[in-house]
Each structure stands twice: as structure tokens, then as C-alpha cells.
Design brief:
The protein has two helices and no strands. By secondary structure, it is mainly α.
């Protein structure tokens, strides 16, 4: 596992935090979910 640090705009941070809370998961879990979803979308695009 690799640790990553991000500098986010305050409003973006709040939006991500709120969505994570709404889903009942941590921000870390939510961001990993978004990254994995983006990766799978890119893989799907490259096969078409």
C-alpha cells in the first residue's frame, strides 16, 4: 500500500466528505471507490 497526499480546495473537500458521510464510509474508502470506478471506466473505453 502507498500513502498519498492531496491538496484539495476547501469546497471540494467538503463535498467529498459529505458524500462519504452520506454513504456511511470514510473519505479514504470513498476516494478509493471513485478511483477504482474511474480505472474500470478507462479500461472499458480502451477495449472499444
Amino acid at each position: 500500500m502507498v500513502k498519498v497526499s492531496l491538496d484539495l480546495d476547501g469546497e471540494l473537500h467538503k463535498a467529498i466528505r459529505k458524500r462519504a458521510i452520506d454513504k456511511g464510509i470514510t473519505m479514504k474508502a470513498y476516494l478509493v471507490e471513485l478511483i477504482e470506478k474511474g480505472e474500470s471506466m478507462e479500461e472499458g473505453e480502451s477495449t472499444t
